[in-house]
Amino acid sequence: MNLLETLHQFPALANVPDEQLQWVIDRAEEVSYPEETVFYKPNEPVEYLMLLLEGRIRIDGGGANDEILTYDPYSVLGVLPFSRMKTIPNRLVSTTPTRLLRLHRDKLHDLIHNCYELTEALVHQMTTRVRDYTKLTQQTDKMASLGRLSAGLAHELNNPVAAVVRSVDTLKSHLRATPEAFKTVMSLQLTASQVDSVTEVFFKKVDNQLLPDTKRLTLLERTSLEDDVTDWLDDHGLDDSTDLAGPLVEFGFTVDDLDWILEKIGDGNLVGVANWLVNNLVIEKLVSDIGEASRRIATLTGSIKNYTHMDRGGGKENVLLAEGIRSTLTLLDHKIKSKHIDLKLTIPDNLPVVCGWPGELNQVWTNLIDNAIDALPDGGKLEIVSELDKRSANEGLEFVLTKVIDNGAGIPEDIRDKIFEPFFTTKEIGKGTGLGLDIVQGIIKHHNGSVKVESKPGHTEFSVCLPV
C-alpha cells in the first residue's frame, strides 16, 4: 500500500481529495521510533501535525505506568490548523515500533489556503479532540474525588460497623447468661405492686437516657458516683458490686434510687432485682449502641445517595445547595476531624433553589472544600456561607453567593492567576491532578455563574455565584 492509499485509511481523511493528501505527502517527512521511545517530554514545544501510520502511541500521566490515553494506527495528533496548542503537559511514548508522517507547523498556513477539504477535516478533528479532552479531564477529576471520598467514607463506616459487630457479639454472650438470671427472678417473692415499682423506675431511667437535654456526667462525677454505688452494694451484701455499679451509673441510678427500690422490695429480694436491673440495662445499652451505629451508617449512605444523585435523572433540576454542601461535608468529615478543623456552616433555611446539575455542583463543593482542608494547618478554621447576593437583588436579578473561606497560608500572588489553569497544582506529586479548579470553573460557567478568589495570608476566600 503506497502512502496516499494509507492516508485514505484514516477515518478523518477518508473524503479528502487525493491532490490535497498528496500536497501533505510532498511537504511532510516520515519518521520511525523504536518501542518505548519518548519522543515528546512534558512541556516541550509541539511543532508537528502527526499522522500515525503504524504502531501505537500513549500519553503518560505523572506517575509510573499512569497511562492517560492511547492512539492507534490512523490517528491524528499534534498541532492542528487554528489550534492554539504550543506544548503538552505529558509524555508521548511509542508503545510499539511506530511510524509517523509529520508536517511542520510552518506549513499549516499554506495548508489552510490550498487544501479546503483537508482543513475542514482537521478542524473537525480538533473539535472532537477538545470534546474528548473535556470528558477525560472531568472523568479524571471525578475519579480523583471518588478516591478521596471513598477513603474518608471507609474510615467513617469502619467505626459504626465495628461498633455493631462488637455490640452484637457482646449481646450474644450476654443473652447466654439470661436463663440463669431468669431462675433467680422466678424464685423472688414479689407482689404485683413491687414488680410495677421496679419496672417503673427501670423505664424511667431508660427513657431519661434518650432525652437530648440529659446532662452527661463528667469523668470525675461518674467515678465518684460509681464509688458511692459500689459501696452501697457492698454494704448490702451483693457480689460483683463493681460490675453492677457501672451499668447502674450509666443510666443515672444514684444511692437514693437504690434506697427507694430497697424500701419497695425488701432485703430478701435485693440481689435478684439488682441483677435483673443490671442485666436489662446492659441489653438496653447494647441495643442503643447498635441503633446509634446503624443510624450513622444510614446517614453516610444517605449522604452518598444525595451526593451522587444515583436515584435521579441526568438533566437539570432544582437544586438545594444546602443539601449538596452538607452531603459533601459528611463525606469529608474524616479529613476535617483528622486535622481538628473548626467548621462553621451558615446556610439560611429560606435560600432560593438553583436550577442546575446537582452532580456537577457537588464536584464544585468537593474540590473547593477539599482544597481548603489541604491548605489548613492542624486546628485551622473553615467557614462556608451561602446567601442571596444582595448586589444582584438590587439590580432585579437573583444569584446565590456561596463562599468557602479558610485561614490557611493563602495563595501567593505570583501564582493566583494560574490556579484555574488545567494541570497547574501546588501539591506534591501524586497528591493533586491540577484539574480540580479548572473543572470548577468549567462547571460554574456551564451554570452561567462565576467563581472568584481573594487571598492573603490567613484568609483565602473562593466565591461561587450561581443564578436562581
Automatic annotation (TrEMBL):
Q: Name one GO molecular function term.
A: phosphorelay sensor kinase activity
Q: What is its EC number?
A: 2.7.13.3
If you read the UniProt record, what top EC class would you report for this enzyme, in one word? transferase
User: Residues in domain Histidine kinase?
Assistant: 284-468
Q: Which CDD domains match?
A: CAP_ED (cd00038), HisKA (cd00082)
Keywords assigned by UniProt, alphabetized:
Kinase, Phosphoprotein, Transferase
Q: Which InterPro entries does the UniProt entry name for this protein?
A: cNMP-bd_dom, cNMP-bd_dom_sf, HATPase_C_sf, HATPase_dom, His_kinase_dom, HisK_dim/P_dom, HisK_dim/P_sf, RmlC-like_jellyroll
Task: Enumerate the catalysed reactions.
Answer: ATP + protein L-histidine = ADP + protein N-phospho-L-histidine
Cyclic nucleotide-binding domain: residues covered? 12-129
What SUPFAM superfamilies does the entry give?
Answer: ATPase domain of HSP90 chaperone/DNA topoisomerase II/histidine kinase, cAMP-binding domain-like, Homodimeric domain of signal transducing histidine kinase
What name does the UniProt record give this protein?
histidine kinase
Annotated source species:
Spirosoma pollinicola
